[in-house]
Every structure is written in C-alpha cells, then in structure tokens.
Amino acid sequence: MSFPGRHRDSEAGPAPAGSEPSLAKAAVGGVAWVGASYLITRATLLVSTVILARALSPTDFGVYAVALAFITYAEVVNDLGVVQALILLPGDRRRNDAGLMVSFSVSALLVTAAMIAAPFVARFFGQPNVGPILRVLSLSLLIRAWGQVPDAILIRDLRFKERFRANAGRASIQGAVWIGLAIAGLGVWALALGYLAGYLVNSAILWRYVDYRPGRSFWRVRWSTIRPLLTFSAPLVGSVLLLALINDVDYLIVGRRLGTTALGYYTVAFRVPQMVISNSFLVFSQVLIPVLVRAGLDPLRLQRGYLRTLRLQTTFGFSAAVGLAVVAPLLVPVLFGARWAPAILPMVGLSLYATVRSLAWGATDVYKAMGRPRLAFLSSFLWLLALVPALFLGSRLGIEGVAWSQFGVALVAALVMHETAIRAMNLSHRRVALALGPAMLAALSTALAAGAIGLWLPFPGAIRLAAAVIAGAAAGLAGLHMADREYLPRMRALLLPSRTMTAPQWAEEEEVEAEA
Known about the structure:
- By secondary structure, this protein is mainly alpha-helical.
- Helix content is 81%, strand content 0%.
- The longest helix has 38 residues, at 299-336.
- It starts with 19 loop residues before the first helix and ends in an 8-residue tail after the last helix.
C-alpha cells in the first residue's frame, strides 16, 4: 500500500517547508510497524491453522476457501477504489463523507448479490455448505466498509502504529474465535464467524484513532464530490482486480474440478509459503519501491536501484523457497498431522511459485518508476490469459499438477517481465547475472544443508525439522557471506538507517557497482 499523503483532516494546506526529514522518519517507522503487523497477524494465522488442522477436516477448509475466494474478489470493488483515492488526495471532510457513502452503497449491493447467488455457487461446486457460508461471509463486506475510511485516514497520515494495533486486534480475536468455536464442534462455521469477529474488532479500533465522524446526512453528498474520486480511482480498481484474479483463480479451478476436499489440502499447502515468502516480499516493497520511484528520472540510478532490489529480494526469496521445499515432507506432518500428507508435494511447488510470483510483481514496480504503468497492466493481463488454461490442464494431475502449473507460468512471466524491464533500462545481462550470484549460492547452500540434515539425522520428525531449518539457515548465511560480504550490512542500513542521515541521503544512497 502506498502512502504519499501528508495531510490530516484538519490540514488541507501543503506540507510545511523542511518537513522532508520528518516524513522520511515517519516512512521508515511505518515500515517497521507494517513489518510488525505482518509478523503478528501471520504468526497468529499460522498458529491458528496448525490448531485448526487438527480440529477440522480438509473439506471444511475447502468450503471456507471457495466462499472466501468470492469475498476476496468482491472486496476489490467494495468501494470502487474511492478509499485508495482518499489516501492519495488531501484530507477533506466532504471527500470522507463521499467515500463512506460509496463504500456502504457498493457493499450493500455486493451483499445482496451474494445472498442471491449463494445457491448457484453451491450448485456449481457441488457442495451445499458453500451457499450458507458465502452468505455469512458476505456480511464482512459491510463490516469492512464501516472501517475503510478511517483506515485510509491513518494510512494517509502515516499513522502505522495505530493501524498495527487494529490489525493485531483483528488477528487475535479472529484466531481466538476460530479455535474456540472449532473446539466447540462448529466445524466450518468456526472459520466464518471468526472472520466476521476479527473485522468487526478491526473496524471499531480504527474509528477510535481518527477524529473524523460522519454527519447525520453524510449520505446526501453531491455528485460533484463523488465524480472526481471515481475518476481518480477507476484505473486502480482494474489493476487490483487483475491481481486478485491471478492470485485466487487457482482456488476456483481446484474447487470446481477437484472438489472441496482437494481444495482443503491445497489451501493448507499454500498457507505456509504465503506467510513465509509472499508476505515478506510485501514488507520489502515498503522500503524498496520509494527508492526506485525516486531514482526513476535518472537512468543510471534506476539501473543501480533495480540491481539492488533484485539482489535483496532474490537472496531471501530463493533461499526461503528451496529451504521450504526441502523441509516440506517434515513440516507438514509435524505441524498439521499425518492426515495432511497430500499437501506435501503441492507445498514444494507452491514454495517455488510464491517466490517467482513475488519477483514477477517486482518488475511492475520498475515499470511504474519508469512512468510506464500500462506495461504492468498488459503483462498481468497476458499472465492471466496463460494461467487459466495451464491450471485447467494441470488439474488433470490433481493439486500437484495445479501447483506446478502455477510455478511454470509464473517463472515464464517473471523472466519475460524482467527481460522487458532490463531492455527498457538498457541494462547488460552480465550485471544482472552478477546480482543474482549471491542468491544462487545461498539457495544452493540452504538446500544441501537442510536436505542432508532432514534425510539423514536419526531423530523424531520435530527434532529433524528444527535441525534442518537451523542448518539450512546457517548454511545459507555462510554461502551468502562467501558470495557477498556486504549484503547483511547493506540490508541493515536499508531497514535501519542512521538517525543522522537526512531524508535525501536515506532515499538516494546507492551501492557502488563494479563496471565491466
């Protein structure tokens, strides 16, 4: 999520002169709070999933995943992108009223559509329980609409500490309700009701931290106030919807072609790579995107910024992917139990896919920095066109085929998208290969160490898993140190810049590249 806004509701004027260092400090602090938020929410989700996997069946997870996929698509257009516009535009009470009205109006229409469509969706997937679950989950659209405007205000004002509290509250309540109701025997309803409870708490906390309150007649906003917001937000909705389709179309295909039980295994197989890899890349982006955007007007600086970004992301991503793929046969039975063994092979493919997909989306940041956002939309559209038939073909081989089809299409997409970026920047392939060298050595070291310990250590599964993770991490760091001794200091400087460093210095500091 970008956060360029600088004004509070009561401040419609420009930022005062000399505020750039404080803005940079707020941005860096925001990265820390965003990272902490991801860590807390994902750790809570992982612990909850481990417990729920022993209390619920794969079919329960599959039914929930099908219904939630439709809710995810609805959330993309839940406010027609108006809330995103509130983040990017100066604060104004009339705009806030308009955003709240649009959010409630659109969400009400989507809830009505979900209530009507639920039986047809259940019939399509051949699972009667999908209909009632979809209807209950659709109520979350109204709950989230209630909290979207205060959330936008906090993001615009760079108040990430307050957002962290709201997200932590949501994760805690959601996990507690999930586990409590599952133990009480409510089955899939534990997942649905926990989801609603979490977002209800989240919205309530968000409102606590903003001064804005809608007037009694907030719904009587003029079209002249709404129209600029819709004009500004329309392109954003299209891009985000395309991203949502790419991210979640596999759930729909697995649920339709292979059934909700297979989808339950697939959901658990993707849960760990998503939390460990995909969400870590989102935190990386909070730091790296501003550097690329700032460098976009200078071709040489953009090249160096791109190489730095690629080196940082691949070093973590490659090692995490191969490490998780190697320990998957140990991780699944230890965390989730022996009955989840069908999730092992899909987790191997999805671990590699999570990294490749994240790297592919990283190329779109370069397009934006170059002022060519249409390339991002076109490449994503072509990716979706290739993905759907590939997933249909892969489903003939079960969820393993779907997982590896995901990886194959994402790998091609990443190569094409980064090749396009490299050509557009007139960057030599030799410099790109040198940037990838440390990542390749670190990943190889991780795989060899984790694989050797996991296969040959004569101890119970949990001990072997812990030993394999530790050995893989240590070997990866050793390989990284051999290939690039400056990587860890560079990462530390990027995430924890010196207090004496000014904003331009922090944003523009670049490594010295060796010229061919």
